[in-house]
Structure formats: C-alpha cells, structure tokens
Amino acid sequence: MNVQASLWRSIAVFRVASLVYAAVLIVVDRADYKHLGWAWAVLAGMAAWTAFTSAAYAVPARRTRLLLAADLLVTAAALASTALLQYPASVAKAAMPVTATWVAGPVLAWAVAGGIRAGVVAALVLGACDLTLRHQSLTGVYRSPALNGTVLLLLAGVAVGYVSTLADRAERAVQRATEIEAASRERDRLARGIHDSVLQVLALVQRRGAEVGGEAAEIGRLAGEQEAALRALIAADGDGGSALAAGDLDLRALLTQEASASVSMVTPAGPVLLPAHEARELTAAVHAALDNVRRHCGGTARAWVLVDDEGEAVTVTVRDDGPGIPPGRLALAAADGRLGVSQAICGRMRDLGGSARVMSTPGTGTEVRLRLPRRPAVL
C-alpha cells in the first residue's frame, strides 16, 4: 500500500494532460495573442519543467522544500507572462491564460507534500498572481469570472490536502499492523521452540524427581514451578499484542501469575476483559482462596483454577483435592476474627456486586465459585 506514490503519479499525469490542453487553447484562441511565437516558447518551457518535476517528484528524497518553492515560482512566472503574450482586452475578459489548467500543478504538489495548509498557501499565491493579472487598471475592479480560477485552486488545495493526510494516516496504520503481525509471528515461533525444548525438559525433571524421591523430589518440584512460571510468561506476552479497551485488564494475564507446579490454570482462548479495579479485586479473591489451600491442605495438595467468560458475567472456580472443610468451621473462624473467607473472598466479591460460594465436604476437597456480573456499558 503506497497511496502517496499514487498521488504523485496522478499529479504527473495531470500536468501532462494540462500541458496538452494549454497547447490546444493556444491554437484555438490564437487571435487573443499578440506574440503567438512567444506563447509557444513559454509552452515549450512549461513542457521542459513538467518533465523535470515529474522525474524529481517520483523520488521521495527529491521532494524537498526547495523543489516545491521553485515549482511555485516557475508556474507563477509562466502565468504572469500572459500579460505580455495576450492582448489586454483578452486578459480583461478573463480569457484562459497561457498556462491554462497547468497552473494547478504546484497546488496539488504542495497539498500532497504538506497537507491542507500547504495546499491553501500555494493556491493563495497563484490565485493572487491570477487576480493581479486580471486587474483592470482603468476601472480598478475585478470581474466576477476572474475569481473562478482562485476559488478552484483553493478547492483543489483543500481537497487534495485532506486526501493526502488521510492516505498518510492509513499508510502508518497499515505499517503498524504489519509490524505487530510480524512480531506476533516471531513470538509464536519462539514459544513453539520453548515448548519443544525448555518446557519439555522441565516437565521431565519434575516427573523423574518425583519418581526418585529425596532431594531429587525437591529439584523436581522447583523444576515444575519454573515450568509453570515460564508458561505463564509466554501466555502473558502473547496477550500483550491484544487491543484492550480503555481502562480494562485481561483477567487471564493476572491469574496466570498464580500458576505453579501445584496450581493448574484453565482459561478461555481469548482475553477476559474487565475494568481494572474489578479484575484486580477478583484476582485478589482467587489469591486468597489459593492461600487457604496452601495453609490448610498441606504442601502436597493441588488446586485448579477455571475461568469461564459467559459474556454477561465472569465465573472463576477454585477447586482443591484437600481434606475439605468440616461443617461449621467457616462460621467459627469468622467468630474468632479469622476473616480469610468471609472478608478476603466473600466480602470482596460482595463489594464488587458479585457473589462467592464455598462448597466443601470432608474428604472430597473444597470448591470456591466466584461470579462477577458485567456492568452494562455507559453510553
């Protein structure tokens, strides 16, 4: 995608077509010229300048301010030469100047190079030259047709300048998207390489350590934690390229930090977006539930965190294979001032407008279900 290059090519085509039109008008309106031979000489100069600028503007490095200024001055001089080439009466009746529509070339070039403002500046300069040429020295007035050229130049400068600005923004957006796509592909390639090598080795060390026991079991446990942390890092990095809504966080990226050798994480494939405060509070409630598993179920207990995005609500379930909670234990803990479940989990979810359910039977583990409805968008 190179809209700018297409615009410069269009200007070159316009100038050539305008040059042909100017030659036709000299033939048709030859009676208006008192120096017809000089008119053809000016037209030859315009042709040479058209060839030069078309070649120069085709190379981005040559589209300098000096070239743009020279283009404007040469065109203004060609326009002003009409006063010497045509009879005064022809100029007075707002006849087409020797440049014809070729005069719009610099306006288009300035608009493409600098946007609307540059296009308007070039249009005003050449429009002033045209109005000066049309000025009736005897009456000191302008005839209304004399304003048409200036108005058309201004419209051309504004329109092409606007299109050029939009094209430039579009090219930058496409380039940025291409860079993001390339970075995503490279990240996926590295992730596959890590999965096929490092993660597999860590998983192997974890299994062999558990089989051997003793100090090897501790090494295996550490390897398992490193495997979980590395998987979480890859997942979080992969989510970095996702376009998040303003003020929202991806709950998956926050919860993957809780993953370890003893904590398995199951999340949706796509982002689970929540307002930043709600995402952090829900993550804190999950952390409190996992902390209870570590403190009350022993070092060998395992936990599973399942995230379900239902659209209108988000549900996070924390399950463990511990001994479970005896009946009445939670109420007794709250009465004794131990508020891990009643406040850190249930109270936090209640403040968010959500709910928390703790289900447990001795000997079958515990399940904590956290549900947070999504608030309707404010228009």
Describe the structure.
Helix content is 63%, strand content 10%. With 379 residues, it is α+β, with helices and mostly antiparallel strands. It has a five-stranded mixed β-sheet with strand order 2-4-5-7-6. It has a two-stranded antiparallel ribbon with strand order 1-3. The chain is elongated. The relative contact order is 0.06. Residues 136-142 and 241-246 have low confidence and may be disordered.
Describe the secondary-structure layout.
Layout lengths: L2 H26 L7 H22 L7 H16 L1 H4 L2 H5 L12 H30 L11 H67 L2 H25 L8 E3 H5 L7 E4 L6 E3 H21 L6 E7 L3 E8 L8 H7 L6 H10 L3 E6 L5 E8 L6
Parallel strand pairs: 2-4
Antiparallel strand pairs: 1-3, 4-5, 5-7, 6-7
Helix pairs in contact: 1-2, 1-6, 2-3, 3-6, 6-7, 7-8, 10-12
Care to give the gist of this entry?
With 379 residues, this protein is α+β, with helices and mostly antiparallel strands. It has 12 helices and 7 strands. The chain has helices at residues 3-28, 36-57, 65-80, 82-85, 88-92, 105-134, 146-212, 215-239, 251-255, 276-296, 329-335, 342-351, and strands at residues 248-250, 263-266, 273-275, 303-309, 313-320, 355-360, 366-373.
Largest sheet: 5 strands, mixed
Question: How many runs of DSSP E, i.e. beta strands?
Answer: 7
Helical coverage, percent range: 55-70%
Query: Overall pLDDT, averaged?
Result: 82
What structural category characterises the helix and strand content? alpha+beta
What is the strand arrangement across the widest sheet? Answer: 2-4-5-7-6
Number of helices: 12
Terminal Cα span: 36 Å
Q: Which term fits the overall shape?
A: elongated
N-to-C order of helices and strands: HHHHHHHHEHEEHEEHHEE
The whole-angstrom Rg is 38 Å
Query: Low-confidence segments, ≥5 residues, pLDDT <50?
Result: 136-142, 241-246
Percentage beta strand: 5-15%
